[in-house]
Amino acid sequence: MWQYSHHVLAGLRTHEGPILTVANFAGDWPGLVGLLGLNAGLTKMQKPYSTIWSVDFTDDWFAAGLAEWVESGTITHDASHVRALPELPASPERDLGYALGDQLMRDKAIIGVFDEGCMGMYNAIFAEGILNSTERPPVFSRDGQRELHAGRAFPHFKEADEGVAVDALITDRVWTAMGMVPDNTLHDVRWGEEYDGQFVWVYEISGSVPASHLGGWQNAEGWRQDPVFFPAGGSTINGVSKPGELVLSRVFLADGQLQVDIFRGSAIELPADETERRKQATNPEWPIAHVVLHGVSRDQFMARHKANHVQMVYADDAASADKALLAKAAMFERMGLVVNLIGDVAI
User: Fold this and answer.
1) Of 43, 163, 292, 310, whose CB has the highest number of CB atoms within 10 Å?
2) Better pLDDT: 210 or 233
3) Angle between helices 92-106 and 162-177 (to 10 degrees)
4) 84-122: buried (b, 16+ CB within 10 Å) or exposed (e) per residue?
């Protein structure tokens, strides 16, 4: 079931035996969200653990993994989809990333916590999806004379997740410099199943998404949030993310170092009945994205990803996505992060 990792981590910090985290691979209660969040916390505090998951705990892969853990105290997962960022040859994208990295290291950014927008707060807010959107309503100075940041998205982070804050800012600067729409958002890695021969992830987020991800405000709806999570009510944007090419990433702490995983994917369109089935199997009031990852299987992703969140941004096309990913990787490298390329990445 959905667990909040801070209830569990304190006890595990001093636990002396081997640790195994387990979740059912199902959408109705987001156990996968809890599993990935807990794994991220254990990784951050450098506490060894093993992890495994299953739809119904009867498959041979799960049984073999459990047997391995019982016998050895560890489970080894396939990490062949992960590689270090190679030395980048000179290119316009590399040079742009380095220049933006130098700029941010020289002229620092300030992170502020939008308190009432964090997950677990009393009420849901519609504003989260509006803020990080170039199509947002105008905001004026206190005297009403000046429009603030006209035509610009306002990068921010939800659910008290500083990794998202760093990622959102870097994405905004790279995409803006490359002349692409910088609207980006975090999603919960909620669930997924095969459809028509490929594994399609269900990404959802209670905090809503930029309307541009839905194809415009005409495709956005405001839904009252589930009182289980938001007892005072409130609305967020609901809708289905449009098809398109994606760059996805996650900033996280591991081995005492700030790192980032960067990978490619595609948002695809599914038939209306399949979309509705997936929404009803999870949280129908939340916006959904149907995501296919490039060169990363379900189990590879689950074994590697160090967060219950993933950051997502659209590019104009596949070629633009590859170039923007390179520039983003270069910017992170210039800032001193360990950069990991995940799956099929054109670098």
Assistant:
1) 310
2) 210
3) 130
4) ebeebeeeebbebbbebbeebeeeeeeeeeeeebbbebe
